Amino acid sequence: MEKYITYHMIAFWAGIILDLIVGDPYWMPHPIRWIGSLIGKLTKAMLNPFLENGRDRKKEKSRGVLLVLTVVGITVILTVVLTVGSYFLHPYVGMAIEMILTCYILAAKSLYVESMKVSKALSEKGLAAGRKAVSMIVGRDTECLDEEGVIKAAVETVAENTSDGIIAPLIYTFIGGPILGLAYKAINTMDSMVGYHSEKYEDFGCFAARLDDAVNYLPSRISAVFMIAAAFVGGKKYSAKRAAHIFKRDRYNHKSPNSAQTESVCAGALGVRLAGDASYFGKIVKKPYIGEPTRAIELADIKRAGALMFITEILVVLICSGIYTAVIFILK
Fold it and tell me: What is the rounded distance in angstroms from the CA atom of residue 312 to the CA atom of residue 309?
């Protein structure tokens, strides 16, 4: 048991480092894209008959549950076969496969790179380019955003995805390896694809959305606590005291019970106001503000949010390493 835990931790650390170095190159095959393709095909097969032949909301909900069970089941089975099979071949092969899958599960570098593309587009090519760049990482309408709106959208995405793109999958992978990590990513991907409050997905996607809320409940709060610590570690450009205050006050200023957890910390740490009304599919959605405008948001805040994300990840990895050391000590 002890040696397999050690194999897992070596692969875990190596996967995190690999993600920070290479991220997600577009030319490489990616299991999350495969999962997304599977979700798209199953959604078309399960939901389209209702869209074409008449709605049945009860059956749509049942089909939505079936979608989740099918996608998560296939993901887990294939990951078990791949990881366990590779360890049967040789421990080094197993660690290599686990390292690569861990890299795929995490998204720290890719999130930072995509957010900095927004910053670069705004500073070098202007508002139209910034709108186009931010449209690649947010779900809202971007054509109507001014420069402040583009910056806010990028900062909010980094803040929110610090939890469900980095810390939550990191925690699940630490606990259960790529098997649990990819199962989490499958749930999270389904939520992003069908978990909308829209006429089309309101019933079909409700189970995926609620399951995503459940699996992110603890990780989002853990992420927020460590982000407050990261604001303390990060120096004068952040305020840990204000981050804790805004977190306590505004962490539920979102329809999702989880999304505002890290977003409120980031807003407080930077001293800016985030969220507010946004346009989705041509309709204005009323949202409360998060944070206080102690100063105007500026382009450099995108990079500051990214740095806060990295510090948060490092702190969580250090805690995971401490837990591993304690477990090995107990086993001995």
Answer: 5
Distances in Å between the alpha carbon of 3 and those of 79, 111, 171, 257, 259? 21, 33, 20, 39, 38
Helix (H) or strand (E) holding 274: strand 273-275
Q: Are 155 and 299 in contact (CB under 8 A)?
A: no
Distance CA 66, CA 287 (A): 32
Question: pLDDT (tens digit, 9 = 90+) per residue, 46-63?
Answer: 988 877 777 777 888 899
Asked whether 308 and 234 are in contact (CB, 8 A), the reply is: yes
Beta bridge partner(s), residue 278: 285
The letter for the amino acid at 9 is M
* pLDDT score of 278: 75
Q: Please give, one letter per residue, the 3-state secondary structure of 21-48.
A: HHCCCCCCCCHHHHHHHHHHHHHHHHHH
Low-confidence winner among 120-134, 216-230, 267-281, 297-311 (lowest mean pLDDT): 267-281
Q: Which residues pair with 291 in a beta bridge?
A: 273
What residues form DSSP beta bridges with 284? 279
Q: Nearest to residue 208, comparing CAs of 221, 217, 218, 196? A: 196
* Local structure of residue 286 (DSSP, 8 states): -
φ, ψ (nearest 5 deg) of residue 284:
-75, 125
Q: Residues 178, 101: contact at Cβ < 8 Å?
A: yes
Residues 6+ apart with CB under 8 A from 41: none
Q: What is the chain's alpha carbon radius of gyration, rounded to the nearest angstrom? A: 20
Helix (H, G, I), strand (E, B) or coil at 280: strand
Q: State the DSSP H helix or E strand holding residue 134, giving kind and residue range, or none if neither.
A: helix 127-134
Read off the amino acid at residue 306.
G
Pairing, β 278-280 against β 273-275: unpaired
| Burial status of residue 322 (CB atoms within 10 A of its CB: 0-12, 13-18, 19 or more) | exposed
